[in-house]
Every structure is written in structure tokens, then in C-alpha cells.
Amino acid sequence: MSNMTIVGAQWGDEGKGKIVDLLTSEADMVVRFQGGNNAGHTVIVDGKKYVLHVVPSGILHPGKMCIIGNGVVLDPENFLEEIDALQSLGLDVSPERLKISYKTHLIMPYHRIIDGAREGASKNKIGTTGRGIGPCYEDKKARVGVRAGDLTDPEALKDRIARALEEKNVLFTQLYGLPALDPETVFNDLMAIAPRIVPYLADVSSLIMEAQEADQNIMFEGAQGVMLDIDHGTYPFVTSSNVVCDNASIGSGVNAGIIDQRIAIVKAYTTRVGSGPFPTELFDDTGEFLRRQGGEYGATTGRPRRCGWLDLVVLREMIRLCAPTTMALTKVDVLSGLKEIRLCVAYEYEGKVVKYPPQTPRGLEQSKPVFEVLPGWEEDLSGCEGWDDLPRNCRRYIERVEELLGVKAGFISVGPDRKQTFRR
Ligand code: GDP
Ligand code: IMO
Ligand code: MG
Which ligand is nearest the CA of 297, by number? Predict the structure, then answer.
């Protein structure tokens, strides 16, 4: 192992948490670098289920250092609930092994209100997770954000909250028909929990670089998926951060030169939650089959996930943006029982066959998938421990994906448990 970034290859929920957890056994430090508690990373260890939202999935391994980088947006109340829940499951979530960057932006109550009000009022819902993620990143860019480090400087914090609320209260009262927020109350509520957050604050860049100099293995854990990237995803139906691998360095305050491996987590079919184009979406019994077999319900909001065939056009875009050194193919077991499996190898767009997503505003909406049909398999894969245990047609499916993408699937996952993964 060396330093690696784990990135979601599709629209999120590919099984990143599971692979991060698995590889943490070889890592010394796990760093989250973007997103917030819009993420839901489920890890199952010996039948026990853990759902991580903003805490790195590496937390399940005792003694490994976990870091929340500057590129993350952190909801302080929600963070405390998450660590309390993890602690009650017997995990060590003390400030000795969990650190938050001074530069991490805080999701404030008014961010959640704006997220909810916009989604409630809009005819063109994005289908956000309602966690205030977008409004928090907006304030960061508008330079009126509140950072975790501000908790150590109450006077300045009070000023920043008052300044942020000047504009927001106009929005609340005049556009959304909501009551104004009292800056004093927002400040006092935050200060009431600050003593529990402050011990976690650290100079995260220095910690990571010290680990690097000590030859430790560092893993950067991505949230969401490349098609939800603010620049390169299906805008505007995206999240508000950069999801691509290269944001790992910016979002954690280190140079990109220290990262030498990139693992793309690819679900063996495609899912998405929320609105937006999805060329290979299935609206029939097969879609329902995938949802049921794959347990495709959101870990954060419980919403049913939209399901469809694997889309290699999407994966080609991910590959050109992230250049993964290997792929982890997850949930292959879910495909068992299908007579035939479709693989979207290209799109038909404006009468032409294209291999990359059209960049025009409605390009994806106007694209029709071009499918290759492969034979399915009946066998249950949940007990497979190696390549040779997989049925022939399953190996053929994986090899065809590798061949068309030019990237190897170095990890195959055949069930939700930590043990149900093997390397090739
Ligand atoms: P993440 O957000 O990328 O970490 O993925 P989620 O945790 O939101 O969603 C993946 C879901 O699939 C979780 O419920 C996992 O427990 C489950 N899962 C992960 N890998 C596999 C697999 O190989 N097979 C099956 N059947 N389930 C898996
Ligand atoms: P993990 O890390 C799947 C989606 C939302 C919505 C859009 C914008 O578990 O893979 P936001 O609340 O971020 O402003 O919502 O992005 N979304 C996710 N979909 N998995 C996630 O995270 C997601 N995080 C955000 O459903 O469509
Ligand atoms: Mg998830």
C-alpha cells in the first residue's frame, strides 16, 4: 500500500465505505476531503452495521488516525450525534484519533433552512439530501462562511454570524415567508456545543505531511461520485463540491504529489438518488429487481434509489478525469438471477454514436444508450472467495467491462460484509 484516493465512479453509493474499511487494515490514516453528512457510507463487519456520514470509514479500525479535511463541510450538531452513536457502538472516537481541520467550514442552521426552503418551493427540485450542503459551500465561496477554527475566537465568530445573517434574514422574511433568525441565539447555540468540538481541531495539513514523512500509508476517502461533481457531473443535478480524485489534495491541504494510487469504486450496475438525467435507468421489473436485490434505499435519507444498467460512457468520463490505477467492482452478487445483462457501451446522440457524455446542457437527457447484451448467471455469489469461484458468465461480464474500459478490476465485492471481497 502507499497513499491512495478512493473515489465513487458513478452517482454515489457505489460501496466506497466498504472498500475504505477493507483497505484501512493496511493504512495508518484515513482522510475525508469533500462533502459532508450528505454522504452515507455503510460498513458491515461480522453482521454488525455501521453507517458513517462525515466521520471517515477508517474509524472502525482501532488505532487508525481519522481526519476531516478543510474541503469537508461539517454540521457540528450532527457530528456530535454521529460520534455519540459510534461511541455507543463501542468505537473510540476521541480527539486523540479523530481530527478536524481549523479550515473546515461549518454547516449552520440557516444553511439547512435555505436548503429545505429552496427544495420545497422549487418546481425543478434537485432532490438534495436537505443537509444544507449547497448553501454552506455557497457561503464558503462568497467568503461569509463560518469555519471550525472560528469556534476558538468567539468575538470574531459572533461578527461572522451577524454578517451572514444580514442577507439571509432578508431571504427568510421576504422570499420564503419564514421568521428571521436572531444572530445572538445562533451564536449562543453554537457556543454551547463548541467545547465538545474544539478538542478535535488540528492543523491537518501538518499531521498528514508528518505521517507522509514517517512513511505511513494515507488513504483519502471520497464521498459522492464523479457524476455528482459540481464541475463535471450532471449539472445542476449535482452536489456542491468537486468529487474527482484530484480534489483530495486541495480538500486536505497537501500536495497532489504524495498520492500515487487511485481506486475507482464501480457498482456493477448504476444507481442514483435525487433528480437528473440517467440514460440507462430501468423503469421495469428489472429495475425493481435490482432495487430489491441490492437493497437500494438511501443510507442518509431512506429514499429508494433509481436503478439501471452499468454505463460505460459515464465510466469513461470518470477514467479521463481520475485515471484510476485500479477499479473495485462492487455488488456483482446483485446481478445473479438475471437471464441477460445489458452493458451500455456508448450513447446515440444526435444521430451519432458517442463514447463520452455530450457536453451540451441537455446532452445526457437527449442521449440513448447503445447496449451490448451478455448472458447472465443463476449462481449465488455471496460465498465466492476468488476469481475461479465466479461462474463463467460472471467472469465474462467483468472481463468485458475491463476490456472496454482498459482498467482492471483489482477488487471484486460479492456481498456487504467486510469478508465478502477478494483481490485479483
Ligand atoms: P457508499 O456511499 O459508496 O459508501 O455506499 P453505500 O453504503 O451508501 O451503499 C452501498 C450499499 O451496498 C451498502 O448498504 C453496503 O452495505 C452494500 N454493499 C457494499 N458492497 C456490496 C456488495 O458487494 N454486495 C452487496 N449485496 N451489497 C454491498
Ligand atoms: P455517498 O457518499 C448518492 C445527491 C443527492 C442529490 C444531489 C445534491 O453516500 O455516495 P446535496 O445534498 O449534496 O446538495 O444533494 O447529490 N447526493 C448523493 N447521492 N450518494 C451520496 O453520497 C450523495 N450525496 C449527495 O441525492 O441528488
Ligand atoms: Mg452512500
Answer: 1
